[in-house]
Amino acid sequence: MARKLTFPLISLAPVICVFLLEPSAVAAKPSASMVLFEEHFNTDVVGTGDWQVSDGSVSVDMVNGWLHISHLVGDGSWGWKDVALNLPIVVEARMRLVSGGWGYTLPQLIVDSGGSYGFEKLITYLPGANFGWYFMDGWTHKDTLGPPSETTWVTIRAIIRSDGGELMAKGDMDATFTPVVAKNWSIPHQIDKLGFRQNWDAVCDLDYVRVSGVECFDRMADVNCDGVEDVFDVIEMIEVAFSGKAVIPCPWSPIPILLK
């Protein structure tokens, strides 16, 4: 039985714009220049000034390799990294909220464009029917793979375009990402800051953040063998391509659909 499609069809083609399909239409690979920015906090990027911070509660945990925010100073402490990233991009980060936070169970991952734009968009999670995942510009009321309690590590992957995007998540025990929500919005075409911020007085850790460029599949096909071509095939194609393997359609898949 085919699984229920959870993303609106309008978002399908943009989601596929992550890897470049080979001319044979049966193999995909990441671009050689795919990774635009990556930080694993193996060095003291706060001490060197590479990351700007709000106060002394933000530091690099050199033992574990995390960007750490304590509750020693006040509420809403943050760390920023200046970047210059043209949309669309794929942002991936592993983070957790350790304690505090007035009910939140995940810190804020922020993308921002300064200057005259003056906008700030973020990803976080607050359990509750009226909240759930906050994705870029508002609450989604979705709780898919939202951390149920403090100290839970969650890895998020967000495809961000100027006109909308998609959010996926996975826990440490999950092999693949699960779709959470797709949204439309209107934001500038360049991101100039990546940020990490505590909710209220929360103690938080950011394990790593990675930003990848976006290239497009020319076609899609039934690669998970469920008899339909839908967003779940897109997720499968992304996961397989990230692993460096070939993306092979099922034997009975029809001629791949052109999306360009």
Q: What features would you highlight for this structure?
A:
260 residues; mainly beta; globular; disordered C terminus
Q: What's the helix-strand series? A: HEEEEEEEEEEEEEEEEEHE
Total number of beta strands: 18
Shape: globular
Gap between N and C termini: 29 Å
Supply the number of structural domains: 2
Report the radius of gyration as a whole number of Å. 19 Å
Please identify the top-level CATH class of the largest domain: Mainly Beta
Structural overview:
With 260 residues, this protein is mainly beta. The chain has two domains: 179 residues, Jelly Rolls; 43 residues, no CATH class. Helix content is 7%, strand content 41%. It contains two helices and 18 strands. Strands 3, 5, 6, 8, 12, 13, 14 and 16 form an eight-stranded antiparallel sheet that branches. A six-stranded antiparallel sheet has the order 4-7-15-9-10-11, with no helix packed on it. The longest helix has 12 residues.
Brief summary:
The chain has helices spanning 12-16, 231-242, and strands at residues 20-21, 28-29, 35-39, 52-53, 58-61, 66-69, 78-86, 89-99, 106-113, 119-126, 132-136, 154-161, 164-171, 178-184, 190-197, 203-213, 219-220, 257-258. It has 260 residues and is mainly beta. It folds into two domains: 35-213, Sandwich (Jelly Rolls), CATH 2.60.120; 218-260, no CATH class.
